[in-house]
User: Fold Long-chain fatty acid--CoA ligase from Rubrivivax benzoatilyticus.
Amino acid sequence: MTLDWLLERFAGAPDGLAFVHEGRSVRYGELLRQVAAFEQRLAREGVHAGQRVVVLGDYTPEAFALLLALARNGNVVIPLTRESVVELSAALSVSGCEWIFEFAAGAVEPTLTWSPVEVDNTTMREFIAGGAPGLVFFSSGSTGRPKGILHDLGRVAGKFVKPRSPVVAVPFLMFDHFGGFNTILAITSSLGTVVSVAERSVASVCAAIETYRVTLLPTTPSFLNLLLAARAHEAYDLSSLQRISYGTEVMPQATLDRLARALPNVVLQQTYGLSEVGVLASKSRGDGSLWMRIGGEGFETKVVDGILWIRSEYSMVGYLNAASNFDADGWFNTQDKVEVDGDYFRILGRVTDLINVGGQKVYPTEIEEVIMTLPNIVDVAVFAEANPLLGQMIVARVVLAQPEPVDGVKSRIRQACRAALAAYKVPAKVVIATEPIHTARHKKSRRADPAR
Assistant:
């Protein structure tokens, strides 16, 4: 599928506000002209259809226009940031490359460099031969080498042919994240406004919401927890917000409850998606509930042995450097453990996050839920450390609102966990965090070394 329909939609609303980037407004008519200018540059520079092109930057009007121009030119686009989950050299060793466009900080015109990296990859070679525009993302690599995920860009965009209600939104997820690309397409295909920020700090995002009357904030539970801890909802006028959607990690019930109290007029919507299959339509059972219905047009779901499987019309073409998680009938194993209640699901966590204590399986989130209810606890990450007797032991790294002796914190946590959980789920070790327990992408890090 080409993107002609998207550009035709832009042409029908030339005065509509497409982007506000660091105070600079760009309307849909200007965005169209930027796409055309990049198409001319691609022809002038000899960037041919089927070539693989890295775009190094973040969401700006120009970067988005370049992505559209490359898609229309039939290229395979590899979006990366300077905080990507994978180093440039490692990414290119998986995907290969011919060209690199790089946006310097604050620049509207990218540099273009011929940087060929040859990789003999059957999946990529066969896809390029088909002539469709492509898109490559990389997994976080939390359990090993990051996986290269190849998508048909036209198929991904086709989900948005049917327009939705326009919104004013901050694209919180990054340029090299499937969810971020999904957000940008959702906003622009409905002729909404993208409010992009230079940094995704609580202060920057909240200031943008206040200044530009943002109506939708798609973000992560970790960011929302930071927002509440900073009391940013009291320092900034967030009254324009109509909806907050959250995903990419499990939301603690305590954080959701606090958020509902802090922003009672905002609809809180849990979302669910994976880079391999796309972002599913979702509906929370209620603002204060972690149960949700997921699916929508083009998606099917089923649960096998407590694990969620998805079949999607928007699935990836394939991994570039890993075996497929799809079965012969096109069902994808998400590796997410779920509970089911009628049409509703509750995500418990990834199977890969399980802690094995003497043969007993423990999900970190169920322990974090208990700890987050305690006073003076701002955040917590539960993870495993090796233990010679039990195989693994449970460690809780906590962030405190105010300094407190570790012995007192440990006693309170153990007492609360013993009252609510089985004995083997009580943390054997409690550590006071001296640095953030989330990544630069505001996703909780459950590593013994959170800096990794």
Remarks:
- The two ends are 39 Å apart (CA to CA).
- The CA atoms of residues 375 and 401 lie 9 Å apart.
